[in-house]
Amino acid sequence: MRRRCRFRVSAFGWLSAAVVLLFTAEAGVAGSPPFWPAVQVSHGSSTRIAPGISYAHYTLRTSDGPLNIHQLRVDLDNPSVRLSTALANNQLISGDETVSSMMTHWNGAIAAVNGDFFDIGDSGMPLNIMVKDGRLLRSPSGWTALAIGRDGSARIAHFRWAASIAVPEIDQTYWIAGFNTGIAPRGITVLSNVRGYGAPVPDPGTRQTVVELSPAGASEDSAARYTVRQVWPQQAFYAPFPKREILLVGRGETSDWLLRSIKAGMAIDVGLQTAPDWRAFATVLGGGPLLVQNGRLVDDPYNPVPRERDKPNPVSAVGVSGDGKTMLLVAVDGRQPHLSVGLTQPQLAAYMRWLGASQAMEFDSGGSVTMALRLPGRPAPVVVNSPSDGHERAVANALIIFSRPSAKSR
Question: Which of 56, 223, 325, 331 sits most deeply, having the most CB atoms within 10 A of its CB?
């Protein structure tokens, strides 16, 4: 059922009627979010698109120009609701994929928004931590991330990387620079098949050693023991390689240490550790900056796009209630003077807190901002916002919202 300007108090603690008061208020009225331009005229509507999932659309005229805002409210306590991540083309290095396309590969997908920043125009890799269905796909970069617990509750956190390998035969350990990231010039990079490329040929003058590891009765997703199959100096090792195998790739001094210390047949313990522990979560999706923490506006020192802080842009964000059981997803169009001018990061943060978010963070901004819905009676997902590129951009990953007890991924 579609409702115009009729709202109720939600489990999030948002008094939705207050949205109407703001968006129909005269310019300068008290109660508007800080840093916002004066709201002169507004219209809004709300639609429940599935049990536990509702969509709202607001159009505003402000003293700075028009705004076009799209919102999803998700009741994480509803037994029909489930969240997961989608990875473009099922691998980290790829030509990327649109959000609406990613939705079509999932049974029961009702809504989706764009996710992490990514290496646009090159590898296409997401740039921060990603956990999909309880499996670590990429290590964290230090920026903030949305984390969905195995109980379905949500939180926003910075994940710290603290991984290493141990070689019992020689009683030595070595730190791991990253998991399924770019190849580190120093340290060990661990790669799995989901990276989608493997270890490249080293550049001229670059020393590289690849160690091929097979699991010794354990999963790659835990502090696991592996057996060295072979050591490959100065060679590429392309994906796909045998299932459940991983590669240790070292360059420079690390290459020398691997070549000198590691032999075929050795046992190696690989610990892919983060703090907080990624194993406690079913879904983790990177982004940034952090906008709201414990109900307070924050200026995140680990901002992925600090130059965009005070510039109005298309922006997408996620807010989480204090109990972690309700989520608000927001997509604000921008860079379109006749439709929507966008928001600055402080304006977005103020809006998320004003809505009642105890925690909030931004996802990738600019032309990547996408909200897609599977509306009742529509055979395929529909992009409801207006991407600033003039068309839907291919991105690295997305947050997918389901409305059914379980869903089978591709």
Answer: 331
